[in-house]
């Protein structure tokens, strides 16, 4: 939660409702974009040397394929992706002062990201040129695995963190928005 100050700075430039409309998330210091903003503000030498911001599974994909990619569910967890357009949000990147070039290419979770390199093959024993699929975020994949794929179906996860997923076609209904941005 070290990015609390950065989250407060974001809140001065964008309303919680607008932030939610872009990202589907409430403002919180726990997301990747705010953490990268913290690094930019507090460790500028590291930010300056950063080529791409990757989540853990995307780093593994990089090591296997030499490709800098992520997919929509993990990109969503950064609070830098526009859910409506399925692209990096220029508005939020500008507000957070994050260079868009530091963001990886966006793919679908079922897309082939690349193929096992000869180096990765030698290190892992995997066959060279084996296709590597992008995959998805743990929460999204868990929700799908429990059958949370039809309108009105909910999924609850209790573990390191606790959360509830609800499948809806209308993420931006006034009641859901108000609930998720903490107005009710």
From TrEMBL:
Keywords: Kinase, Transferase. InterPro entries: ATPase_NBD, FGGY_Carb_Kinase, FGGY_N. It comes from the Bacteria. Signal peptide: none annotated. Residues 2-145 form the Carbohydrate kinase FGGY N-terminal domain. The keyword Kinase applies. The keyword Kinase applies. It holds the Pfam family FGGY_N. Belongs to the FGGY kinase family. This is Carbohydrate kinase FGGY N-terminal domain-containing protein. It comes from Megamonas funiformis YIT 11815. The lineage of its organism: Bacteria, Bacillati, Bacillota, Negativicutes, Selenomonadales.
């Amino acid at each position: 939660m070290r990015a609390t100050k950065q989250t407060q700075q974001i809140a001065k430039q964008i309303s919680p409702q607008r932030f939610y409309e872009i990202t589907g998330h409430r403002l919180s210091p726990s997301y990747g974009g705010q953490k990268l903003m913290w690094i930019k503000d507090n460790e500028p030498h590291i930010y300056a040397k950063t080529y791409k911001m990757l989540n853990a599974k995307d780093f593994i994909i990089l090591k296997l394929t030499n490709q800098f990619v992520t997919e929509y569910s993990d990109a969503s967890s950064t609070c830098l992706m526009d859910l409506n357009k399925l692209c990096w949000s220029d508005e939020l990147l500008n507000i957070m002062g994050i260079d868009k070039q530091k963001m990886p290419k966006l793919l679908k979770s079922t897309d082939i990201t690349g193929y096992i390199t000869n180096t990765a093959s030698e290190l892992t024993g995997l066959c060279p040129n084996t296709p590597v699929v992008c995959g998805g975020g743990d929460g999204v994949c868990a929700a799908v695995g429990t059958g949370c794929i039809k309108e009105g179906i909910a999924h609850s996860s209790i573990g390191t963190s606790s959360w509830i997923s609800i499948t809806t076609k209308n993420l931006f209904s006034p009641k859901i928005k108000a609930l998720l941005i903490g107005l009710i």
